[in-house]
Amino acid sequence: MPGRQQAASETMEQERKGEVSIGMYTYNHNSDSGFDVHEIYVKRSRFWVLLSYIGMVFLLASVCQLYLSKEGLSTGSVWSIAFGILVAKCLQYKPVKKESVVIMPTFGVQLEIHFWSGRVHRRFVPIGKILKPLLNECVTPVTCYWSLALLLRDEEELRLVFQKSHPPVKMLVPVWKALCKFLNSGCQTSSAVSEPNRSET
Amino acid sequence: MENVTGEGISDQIERFQTQLQMDGRGRKHRILMVSDFFFPNFGGVESHIYYLSQCLLKLGHKVIVMTHAYGNRSGVRYVTGGLKVYYVPWKPFLMQNTLPTLFLTFPIVRTILIREKISVVHGHQAFSTLCHEALMHARTMGYKVVFTDHSLYGFADAGSIHMNKVLQFTLADIDQAICVSHTSKENTVLRSGISPEKVFMVPNAVDTAMFTPSPDRLSCDEIVIVVISRLVYRKGADLLVEVIPEVCRLFPKVRFIVGGDGPKRVRIEEMREKFSLQDRVEMLGAVPHAQVRSVLISGHIFLNSSLTEAFCIAILEAASCGLLTVSTRVGGVPEVLPDDMVVLAEPAPEDMVRAVRKAIDMLPGIDPQVMHLRMKKLYSWDDVAKRTEIVYDRAMQSPQTDLLERLPRYLRCGAWAGKLFCLVMIINYLLWCLLEYLQPTEGIEEVPDIRPVHARLESVDDTCETQGKGI
């Protein structure tokens, strides 16, 4: 019973902070320092990280074996190096730590990608360039997912808000609503898809 | 002619629907229409899927269409009436068909089935690889499946033998099947070995509002015969090459308008040059669907020379425009129109000429407006939708079966083919288990229902089910 109460209080605390966790994504919202910041954290899968390291070790071992052995470059060693590179590349975990949307009143929207290495990639979109935020259903040859995009003036392609991650629609809706409110575009707030985007390609 | 007029059909529908409601089974379905053939491509299958979907939406069902990408048209699109179309980015490789991969379409089909909360999967056309694969995956996942065959196929040539084996595989474990004519039903049963009790006959229909006759009655001083079809062997283009010069020789008042394009167009143009008929045979080339009516109403007689046809929507469109039809007596064509609206002939030049002569004699007694009104009563997409709804209800009543119960059905497909089909289904089942592990069903987000456009426009007490909008 105390455990259940503790879990409930944690959930309430998260909601109060504007924090929601679904699967590998955690959504956080704060409005400190006059900016409206929406953050999506991406959890690292330990399993894939471990496999990635195993791939790296396998690659290093193959290279060392090649240098230490007296024989020339054999077909087997070439294949093992190639396989090691492939394993390391394929199993390399996504280096994105979080993606955030910083809404700056009267200025525009800043889209940020924070990598685990510490590198931050920022793109600023001025308010005058944004026509409308759109919730799209994206279809790939193997799956479907929701994405949040900005329809920009004088640009043919949509600008994806979250480029490296595909957070669930429950996390995209509050960001979409905030962008609508910010742009004062009169988007309906009753539903994320009450007016589906009919021109999506 | 009882079948053509559809007498007693509405009574049967009402009786069956009452029975279903009493049994508590007259539910609203969530249907996924799957085919390689859909708009912007034009044809009988495409029109059938579109109009049927629109009418099912009006009846309160949820309908989703899944097809492959057409050029840059990929992703999710919404068409008239709030019909949602998934243009999956798989490129076609032959005759608008996607490459047969058996298993590679499973992830996307599974995702769509789960996120749209589908209850019935409806595949269209035996030639569509996407249709066969989607039905296979749906059966693996335990969904109810319905298949509609729109064409007639042979039994002897290599292509037909291969196609029939694929059809046998798909229909071995199907809940219900639909054919567009009695001839088509007979053909499908013979080709696939499916039980005739599982096969329903639901004809095509015509949008009579789109195909209306000319308000002014045409003069019979010059008789115009219209031909609109793809100029290919199957549509009898070679027959036209022999019929047109003979008709022009016998009837100086006759003029031809030929609409359509294809590999046999060259032969018709050569015939026109050879017999110096440039002033009497007008070649229009490819005619956009929106302009078909304007071509039809410029003529008196519609000539259909198909060598094989399961139903032939073209003659319905012509009859709706008030044209008297001359057609080859092939496939399901004799079932389509009443005897006083069509002149049938064997697919031979001399018999076709005789039929044209008979049609010219009948012309003074033909009233296009009366013909249009008769067509309006005979064929409606609403009726087709109601009859298809009954098929869905029947499919939902069929018992749920597991893999071990279903495998013997595939074994009966042939000594070697049966074992191969079983292996394919076992691999598909294992792939499903893998997909469930990698991406559990709970991890796939369900799509909120968008209320159909017609439900928003019409009154509150509309029969259409008002669907929730919130996430």
TrEMBL record, chain A:
- Membrane in keyword set: yes
What InterPro entries does the annotation carry? Answer: PIG-H, PIGH-H_dom
Q: In this protein, which residues make up the domain named Phosphatidylinositol N-acetylglucosaminyltransferase subunit H conserved?
A: 100-163
Q: Where are the transmembrane segments?
A: 47-68
- Give the pathway: Glycolipid biosynthesis; glycosylphosphatidylinositol-anchor biosynthesis
Its domain of life?
Eukaryota
| UniProt KW keywords | Membrane, Transmembrane, Transmembrane helix
What is stated as this protein's family in its record? Belongs to the PIGH family.
Q: Please state what the protein is called.
A: Os05g0165400 protein
Question: What is the organism field in this record?
Answer: Oryza sativa subsp. japonica
Automatic annotation (TrEMBL), chain B:
What range(s) does the PIGA GPI anchor biosynthesis domain occupy? 68-157
Residues covered by the Glycosyl transferase family domain: 221-361
EC category name = transferase
Which Pfam families does the entry link to?
A: Glycos_transf_1 (PF00534), PIGA (PF08288)
Q: What keywords would UniProt list here? A: Glycosyltransferase, GPI-anchor biosynthesis, Transferase
Question: Which InterPro entries does UniProt cross-reference here?
Answer: Glyco_trans_1, PIG-A/GPI3, PIGA_GPI_anchor_biosynthesis
Specify whether Ligase is a keyword of the entry.
no
According to UniProt, this protein's pathway is: Glycolipid biosynthesis; glycosylphosphatidylinositol-anchor biosynthesis
Any single biological process term in GO: GPI anchor biosynthetic process
Q: Name one GO molecular function term.
A: phosphatidylinositol N-acetylglucosaminyltransferase activity
Enzyme Commission code: 2.4.1.198
A single GO cellular-component term from the record reads:
glycosylphosphatidylinositol-N-acetylglucosaminyltransferase (GPI-GnT) complex
PANTHER family xrefs = N-ACETYLGLUCOSAMINYL-PHOSPHATIDYLINOSITOL BIOSYNTHETIC PROTEIN, PHOSPHATIDYLINOSITOL N-ACETYLGLUCOSAMINYLTRANSFERASE SUBUNIT A
Q: What is this protein called?
A: phosphatidylinositol N-acetylglucosaminyltransferase
